[in-house]
Amino acid sequence: MIDTPKNDNNFTDQKSLNALKLHGEKIIYAVLLVLAVFFGWQYYQKNYAKIDTVAADAYTSISTRDEQLVQAYLNPQLDAAGKQALVEEEKQLLGDIDALVAAHGDTAYAWQALMIKARHQTNNNDLEGAVATLSQAASIDLDDDGLTAIAKIRHARAMLANGDTNGALSIANEAMPTAFEASRQELLGDIYHAKNEIDNAKAAYTKAWEALRERQENRAVLALKLQSLGVSVEPIEPAPSVVSIPNTQPTVEGGDASQIVEHDSAVTDTQNPQNGN
Known about the structure:
Elements lengths: L5 H41 L1 H26 L6 H24 L4 H16 L3 H12 L6 H17 L3 H8 L8 H14 L3 H17 L5 H9 L22 E2 L2 E2 H6 L2 H4 L9
């Protein structure tokens, strides 16, 4: 066994000490950063993840009760007492929506709940309330241009139904994703028609029809609007049907969120031009 000279050990120790002095602060910062990320993730899991679960559970309850109300109102044998009970349940539902929005107002769950609330308000002819609700939904920043466009279009339709054609026109003229151009142009046509600007209405409806033609999608109501203004339209050949693949992504009222962003027909297909939802 060969002994290492003392002066070599001293040299190595001095070299290590110098390296520690030079890089020690960086090492400490790196360790602190790792700890901060770890404890930050733990904090998120214990707090924000739990909040998301609470919001999801609240929305699930609201959505289920909303569907039950819709079905109950369709009952032809509903008597006066039953109708009153449904009115009270509807009030409670809208109150719970307000509570969800107050607690989780910057989430997609709040957006979806506001869509439900606006529909109830519109069905009850509370157009002013629907305008306010849809304005609130449009102001939620979800970093999703598709959902924002849906809220804007419905907001403008509610304003149109409430007689505010200029306000509706202002929203309809805002930039929206290309996927929503057909619905935006149809909305513009409805607004111009209400303002008795028939030439502008024809032009907007025609643009909407051509946008639908590009993706081979029929919209019967739009065809009737064009024909009522004396505009002949060439029928659109529907795209070949494809096998539907089940989707497990979160949904928004009216369909899968990703499908709505790519495909704007869900915004207007089932709507009356004067309907706020």
